[in-house]
Design goal:
With 390 residues, this protein is of the alpha/beta class. Helix content is 36%, strand content 24%. Strand 3, helix 3 and strand 4 form a beta-alpha-beta unit.
Length: 390
């Protein structure tokens, strides 16, 4: 079945919501305007329940089908993220960000709008049995908003039995979908290293413990962790992306700081990389004589798609765009997603939707492609009507 005709009729409205959200980006949990916008729309649509304040600023709408669930699934959750990024926008579009230093550079404006479009249709038609639970989450970009909503009772309060997520993908053609069973997006860990050496004159390095040299040795040694400790058939990434030290060309700085990220796809590799990072830091400290403090923080877990739910997601996408436009064997993505917490809590699946030939995610010239709206909203609708057929 192709896109839902009613969604095509609603595209102008959905696009208008998306562009309004795009012009007013908010970060992390501070998505008060966005959450109010979402809640107001859900109430206008006639949702049976609209709950606010889950995970601080999350919003949940419940849409009941024409008849109660009868022996099958009682409720499924559909999740969209609402937060933006601390990036100065460079798109030049007429609806570009009105907030300096903030923009929707990951398409969460589009995710929210597509789910709102689906919610409007589902509230109008109610051609299903049970509850469609639409979940609008804050703080996906590093704040673990999904975990916060779950902690506030998201799954139990709304009887969610399966949960589904979707993200746009630049470089994938509009009107295509992609997913995979198993590890789909990586776990992410934060590496923070503080180095304290002995500062001094640049002309007398032998009287100092050079924190810059120690930092350079650490970076070089850490690069061997993945290449020489992790099985080549497994995936891992270790990137040190910040190096702060000194403020004068003739002063050996007393201190330096390194910050980076680790990505992995299995618990075993995650444990191994952490162990090796700790060993490398301890070894360089002993060799250099510097005092080195490591703060190794585990963040989002691996996003693991469940087999049955991934098959369902792929079949629904195929009904909308055709089998040749749905891939089910994409390689894992080493980016992270806190939807991982949701599929730890309930069976579910995450799917990618094509955004066309756009700038990449988190780029100042990125923009969500409004042509993808009809496909994304149709996917949500057909997923509900398929899973809650009664």
């Amino acid at each position: 079945m192709p896109i839902v005709n009613r969604v095509a009729d609603l595209q102008a409205d959905i696009m208008g919501w998306r562009r309004d959200l795009h012009a007013h980006p908010e970060l992390m949990y501070d998505v008060h305007r966005t959450a109010a916008f979402v809640a107001d729309r859900l109430r206008e649509f006639g949702c049976d329940e609209v709950a606010t304040g889950l995970g601080r600023t999350g919003v949940v709408g419940v849409i009941k089908g024409r008849k109660p669930a009868n022996g099958g699934l009682k409720a499924i959750g559909l999740r969209a993220d609402m937060d933006a990024l601390p990036i100065e926008e460079e798109t030049g579009v007429e609806y570009q960000s009105t907030v300096p230093g903030k923009m929707h550079a990951c398409g969460h404006d589009g995710h929210t709008a597509m789910l709102l479009g689906a919610a409007r249709y589902l509230a109008e038609t109610r051609n299903f049995a049970g509850d469609a639970v639409v979940i609008f989450q804050p703080a996906e970009e590093g704040g673990a908003g999904a975990a916060a909503m779950i902690k506030d009772g998201l799954m139990d309060r709304f009887n969610v039995e399966q949960v589904y997520g979707m993200h746009n993908s630049p470089g994938m053609a509009v009107g295509t979908f992609a997913t995979r069973v198993g590890p789909t997006m990586a776990a992410t860990d934060h590496v923070n290293i503080s180095i304290e050496g002995v500062g001094g004159h640049a002309a007398r390095p032998h009287k100092s413990i050079d924190s810059v040299l120690v930092g350079a040795q650490l970076i070089t040694a850490l690069q061997s962790v993945v290449s020489r400790s992790v099985d080549p058939l497994d995936a891992a990434v270790l990137s040190i992306c910040e190096f702060h030290a000194g403020n004068a060309r003739n002063v050996i700085p007393q201190t330096a700081e390194l910050k980076g990220t680790v990505r992995s796809l299995t618990p075993e590799v995650r444990d191994l990389v952490e162990q090796r990072v700790r060993e490398v830091v301890a070894g360089v400290a002993q060799l250099s004589g510097a005092k080195i403090t490591l703060d190794y923080e585990r963040s989002y877990p691996v996003l693991v798609n469940h087999a049955a739910e991934t098959d369902i997601a792929a079949r629904v996408a195929t009904e909308i765009v055709g089998e040749d436009k749905v891939s089910t064997d994409i390689p894992p993505v080493m980016g992270a997603e806190d939807f991982a917490y949701m599929v730890e809590a309930r069976p579910g699946a995450f799917i990618f939707i094509g955004n066309g030939d756009s700038a990449g995610l988190h780029h100042p010239a990125y923009n969500f492609n409004d042509d993808a709206i009809v496909y994304g909203s149709s996917y949500w609708i057909k997923l509900v009507e398929t899973q809650l057929a009664g």
